[in-house]
Amino acid sequence: MLMFRPKDRARVARGEITVSFRLWKYAHVKAGKAYPTGFGLVAIEDVQQIPAALIAPEDLGPAGCPTVEDVWRSAEHGNTHVGPETMLYRVQFRFLEEAPPGLP
């Protein structure tokens, strides 16, 4: 399951948020596959690991954040801290209205 913050779920479902940055030890999703979110499915289009400092300005809007620092904060969880050298997974996706064939 690919989780999203409650405040972002409606925006994901409307297609306003199409990029997410994740602080993972390994990629939890693969391009070309669909994953449940708890409120629908998302189709993963691309997954790349990048240093947090290299988040592109054009990814801010699709990530639902006004600044790079806001993206960093959205990727943090627990006692972790994201800084410029932290490796994040950039996940590009699209929300699916219905499950593709072969998925429940």
Task: Explain how this protein is built.
This protein has 104 residues and is an alpha+beta fold. The chain has a single domain (6-96), classed as Sulfate adenylyltransferase (Roll), CATH 3.10.400. It is built from three helices and four strands; from the N terminus they run αβββααβ. It has helices at residues 9-13, 60-63, 68-75; strands spanning 19-22, 34-36, 41-51, 87-96. It has a four-stranded antiparallel beta sheet with strand order 1-4-3-2. The longest helix is centred in the last third of the chain and has 8 residues, at 68-75. It starts with 8 loop residues before the first helix and ends in an 8-residue tail after the last strand. The mean pLDDT is 93.
How much β-strand is present in the residues? 25-35%
**What is the number of domains?**
1
- The CATH superfamily name is Sulfate adenylyltransferase
N/C terminus separation: 13 Å
CATH architecture: Roll
Mean pLDDT: 93
In one word, what is the shape? globular
Oligomer description: single chain
Q: Kindly state the percentage of residues in helix.
A: 10-25%
Structural class, from secondary structure content?
alpha+beta
Characterize the main sheet.
4 strands, antiparallel
CATH top level is Alpha Beta
Order of helices and strands: HEEEHHE
CATH topology: Sulfate adenylyltransferase
> Which radius of gyration do the C-alpha atoms yield?
13 Å
Strand order of the largest sheet: 1-4-3-2
Count all strands and give the number: 4
Helical stretch tally:
3
